[in-house]
Amino acid sequence: MLLGLAAAGGVLLAVTFAPPFRSVRLVDRLAPYVHDTPPPSRLLGTATEAGLLTAVRRLFGPVVTDGARFVDRVLGGRTAVRRRLDALGSDAGVEDFRVEQVVWGGLGLLGAALLATVGSLLAGDVNVLSVALLCVAGLVGGVLGRDWWLTQQVQRREELLLAEFPVVAELLALAVTAGESPTAAIARVTRLSGGELAGELGAALGRARAGVPLADALQHLADRTSLDPLARFVDGLLVALERGTPMAEVLRSQAADVREAGKRRLLEAGGRKEIAMMVPVVFLVLPVTVLFALYPGLISIVSLAR
Question: Quick check: keyword Transmembrane helix in the entry (predicted)?
């Protein structure tokens, strides 16, 4: 009876809200005539916060805040965390990152507690020391795991920046060679291309248009990352802007240098992979080959001995 009632309710809802039976709203009637209207500015509305951190702070505000302060006091390294967040291009602060560490630690503790519960039920006995050690390991692993994941995110983003750098540098060189100013060239490249480096250049251009000198905006871009090629790229731009040296040749030479560095990294990675490939060959393929070669002879010797 309950299943039939649920099925009938589902069919009734599906039929009622189907397009042929659904009543046309006023918004649907006016949408074809106002779809070209630009959306209103966000500055006219009220600021709203959304996301996991906001929900966690609203539900467990004092506890999470105290936990974030304790983690920050125990681990320290606020400068290193701030530098990695800047290299990631994130707008989050160190406090937000500590809150994420607390959340990851809580999830690790919950997972360890569930694992300990399942293990105790299967074993039929509860070892308090093992359960406590497992919970502590889950808590610490969650907190440190968030820090490790931040490092991985920064490394992945830096790899993307290095991969995009030669193309962006050559596009800037082409735009400057065509007679555009550095600001116009950066604007054209950020408008026509996408990616992490184009986004960083767009942010620097936005700060320059807001009143910050272009040299300071580009220097801020170089300070946010730990990549030497990008720092040299920004230094070359600054020198070209200050002294009036030809910028196109500088950009092309830097793009060529980055491509050569990428080739060297590929060769080094290939060398490491070649050494790693020797492990399955030596410890898996070679013993199996020797076994197949010697096993028939061994069987023959055993049969003759009998």
Answer: yes
Read off the tokens for 124. 């039929």
Does this model's pTM top 0.70? My answer is no
Phi, psi of 48, deg, nearest 5 = -125, 145
